[in-house]
Amino acid sequence: MTAKIVYVVVSRLRSRINEREQKLLQLGDDSRRVVLICRGDNRFAEDVWEIAPRPNPTGILRKLRASSLKRVVDRWLFFPSTHLLYVDAVYRRLRRRIRQDLERGEAVSLITCLPAHDLSLLGLRLKSEFPQVRWICDWQDLWSYDEYYLERVPALYRNRLRRLERLVLDGCDMNVTTNSHAERLLVEEFGVPPERCRGICHPFDEELAAETVSGLPERVTESKGVVRMVFLGTLFKPPKMPGDRLLRAMKYVREKGIDVRMDVYGSLFPDRLPLEECGVTHRGHLSRGDIVGRLREYDLLVLIMADLPNCKVVMNIKLPSYFVAGRPICAIVPEDSAVAEMVNRTGTGYVVPAAGDWNEGLYRMLCNYLSGSSPPVRNEKEIARFGWRHLSREWREIL
């Protein structure tokens, strides 16, 4: 049988790979080797490369203590960003390796995990040189459709970015998104042929979900007037995640007489608002193996996304962990979004419309929760569709 080799390329600039990428590295069978290229994280594959970016000549500015000037120069000198220095180094290494694979008659697939979106340039170059390579672009976030990424690109380059994105959408063999909403967007608004689009959700690990949620107490907090909530991830990530609005809503609810408290695990910028009067405490970061157990110590799991076009078509990567934690989700998201549809379909929580008044929306949701009226009813069959055993079959189909 022809050997299959799958190269999974993730950004070296991130501190660790996410759950989705980790599972891609465990996708192999006896006929497939999976190669990870990232920063020194060699837990998931035997054949791991750590590749340093090519030297940046503007580094001299940092040595001259002109870091602010360096950032400005880099922003205008490199398109789309300085990640190009990493992409070029990976290309030189992979080019040699893939040529050898093909000469031995092996079937080669390449998965580029975006963001960082610059990695799409790697796929473009390798696909142009080796048309027989099957290139799969994993759009964990879209690009020109996402205000967070688009606004970081200088206005002079934005049309150029859209042209580049078009080349990627047309050039790869399969565009994978995180849900069916984003899949439809690529077909209907970007004109990508349906046969080259596939929505595959972020997965959860069945081992982390092994503890049955039926044995969990209905509420963690014994005092009926107290609600303990938790937020996992980056609270302030404008414009997608307006943490300021959530904190103002927390303060409003507390002034209305509900003793609501929220712990944040992840990145927080406490200078935005006085956290104490909002009932917010920063607890640092959690390791991957501790997440589900810690989430089960709270009454409600909070997720926020602004009422923006992109927020309607992306799947928040923390959602699978929230599903298996077994606690109700408080999702302040657009009503017609992929996340709202998933929460409603699985019966895992409450949806507060992001387009409305967050203060009143959160207050009404908490009143409903405390009264015990119309609680969400979990649909375990739908939740299981987000498990890796189910989603891994979809990845194997496109590989």
Brief write-up:
This protein has helices spanning 19-24, 59-63, 67-77, 84-103, 119-129, 147-150, 158-171, 180-188, 243-255, 275-278, 291-295, 319-325, 338-346, 358-371, 380-384, 388-398, and strands at residues 4-9, 32-37, 48-49, 107-114, 134-139, 174-177, 197-199, 226-232, 259-265, 280-282, 300-304, 329-333, 349-353.
Question: Describe it for me?
Answer:
The protein is of the alpha/beta class and 399 residues long. It has two domains: 4-200, Rossmann fold; 213-384, Rossmann fold (3-Layer(aba) Sandwich). 37% of the residues lie in helices and 17% in strands. It has 16 helices and 13 strands. It has helices spanning 19-24, 59-63, 67-77, 84-103, 119-129, 147-150, 158-171, 180-188, 243-255, 275-278, 291-295, 319-325, 338-346, 358-371, 380-384, 388-398, and strands spanning 4-9, 32-37, 48-49, 107-114, 134-139, 174-177, 197-199, 226-232, 259-265, 280-282, 300-304, 329-333, 349-353. It has a seven-stranded parallel beta sheet with strand order 3-2-1-4-5-6-7, with helices on one face. It has a six-stranded parallel beta sheet with strand order 10-9-8-11-12-13, sandwiched between helices. Helix 4 runs parallel beside helix 5 and helix 9 (243-255) packs across helix 14. It is globular, with a radius of gyration of 22 Å. The mean pLDDT is 87.
Task: Describe the secondary structure blueprint for this structure.
Elements: E1 4-9, H1 19-24, E2 32-37, E3 48-49, H2 59-63, H3 67-77, H4 84-103, E4 107-114, H5 119-129, E5 134-139, H6 147-150, H7 158-171, E6 174-177, H8 180-188, E7 197-199, E8 226-232, H9 243-255, E9 259-265, H10 275-278, E10 280-282, H11 291-295, E11 300-304, H12 319-325, E12 329-333, H13 338-346, E13 349-353, H14 358-371, H15 380-384, H16 388-398
